[in-house]
Structures are given as C-alpha cells and as structure tokens.
Amino acid sequence: ELIRTHLRKNLDTDTEGPVMSVVVSILTNMSDSVDSNVLTRDGLINDGMQNMLFEFRIIPLLLDLIQTVMELVPRIDVVNYTYGPELMYFIRCSYRILRMMAKNNEKASRALYGELDRLVYQLGYPFAVADVISEIFAGTFDLIRKCEKEFIAKIWGLAKEQREPRYINFLCVLLEHEERPIKFNQDTIIGVV
User: Fold this and answer.
1) Which of 60, 185, 66, 82 shows the shortest CA–CA distance to 121?
2) Which residue among 1, 2, 64, 173 has its CA within the 20 to 30 Å range from the CA of 164?
3) CA atoms within 13 A on the CB side of 6
4) Please, what's the b/e burial string for 30-65 (b: 16 or more CB within 10 A of its CB; e: otherwise)?
5) From residue 47, how far is each of 52, 96, 180 by CA, in Å?
6) How far apart are alpha carbons 164 and 168 in whole angstroms?
7) What separation in angstroms does the CA of 121 have from each of 87, 98, 179?
8) How many Cα atoms within 13 Å fall on the side-chain side of residue 15?
9) What local confidence, expressed as pLDDT, does residue 113 receive?
10) Number of helices and strands (H, E) in the chain?
C-alpha cells in the first residue's frame, strides 16, 4: 500500500506530481504541435531536445525503469490493479519519449536497436511498444536488413492475436526503404505468413 500511495502521489495523470511534470514537459517540448495530448502529439521534432536527452542517457534510464517495474509485477492486470492508471500512464509516456527520440534520429535509433530484446519483451502490452520499434527501423536501411526471422514471426503472431494495425504497420516498415523494395525482408515475411 505504501508503494501504491507513493506512485499515486508522484505519478498522477493530472501532471502535478514531480516525475509526471517532468515527463509531460519533455513530451511537450519534443515536437512542435498544436495537439495538447502528449500521447498523440506529433509534429516537427525538436532535434536539440533529442540530442540533449540522448546525452543525458534518457534511453537506458527509461528502459531500466520500465524493466524494473515489469520484473516486479510482470502481468499487466496486476500492474493496473496494484498501481492504478497512474503507472500505466507513466509507462505509456516513457515509451512515447523513446519513440520521439528515435524519430529521424539515427544515433538514437541505433541505441534503441541495441536494446531491442528489452523492447520485444514488452510487446503485447498496451504501451505502444510496436510504435517505438517501427520508429527505430524507419529510414535506417542496415537496421531494417538486420531483422531476424524469429523477430518477424513474433510480430506476426501478435498481429494475428491482437488484430492491432500497429503490428502490420511495423511489418510494412520492413518491406521497403526510400520506396525501394527490400527483397530479403519481403521473402522472410512471406515465409512467416
């Protein structure tokens, strides 16, 4: 109960807790957009903010934090029941920051690619992890070519199971680069499907 109270106090969805205030501020400043919802806000990326956060090592910090929480409470229904919507919102915002870090930023995409196993572990949870993974590969040809058959099979399995368009969208990212087909990935995806 003490942990739950602490999380509710410091990770509230009204953005008044100190941690959520910082997270919301980061997301608000990551892009130029009129959308006030930090989870859907998109627009021209603030590359100065990306570079600063990269230097502050926010990628491993957020991944470590998410992994620690999920190792303590690995089932999503238990996370929601135990910690409430505040923690769920914080995790979604954290993944949104990671996605915004990778957007049009090869250095951050490569750093996140190095953490792909940790991201794949979270696939299937309602955190939009597939969107982060899609952003890692978008526009980075050599990373697109590195996708392994087992990884593609996992994504396809989730697409069939959950019927979420984000998984199909991710597979589409792997099919071409700069409007040129990537035959190896096309053959791999056809083989899996």
Assistant:
1) 66
2) 64
3) 3
4) bbeeeeeebeebeeebbeebbeebeeeebbeebbee
5) 8, 15, 27
6) 8
7) 18, 15, 30
8) 12
9) 92
10) 13, 4
User: Cβ(187)–Cβ(174) under 8 Å?
Assistant: no
The C-alpha atoms of residue 163 and residue 116 are separated, in whole angstroms, by: 22
Task: At 90, list the tokens.
Answer: 């914080």
- What's the pLDDT at 53? 95
DSSP state of 84: -
For 73-111, how does the pLDDT look when each residue is reduced to its tens digit (9 = 90+)? 656 666 666 666 777 788 889 999 999 999 999 999 999
Q: What is the mean pLDDT of each run of 10 residues along the chain (193 residues)?
A: 51 59 88 88 91 94 82 62 72 92 94 88 78 86 85 87 82 84 90 89
Angle of helix 76-83 versus helix 85-102 axis, rounded to 10: 120
- Specify the pLDDT at position 75: 61
Predicted local distance difference test score (pLDDT) of residue 13 = 45
SS3 at position 44: strand
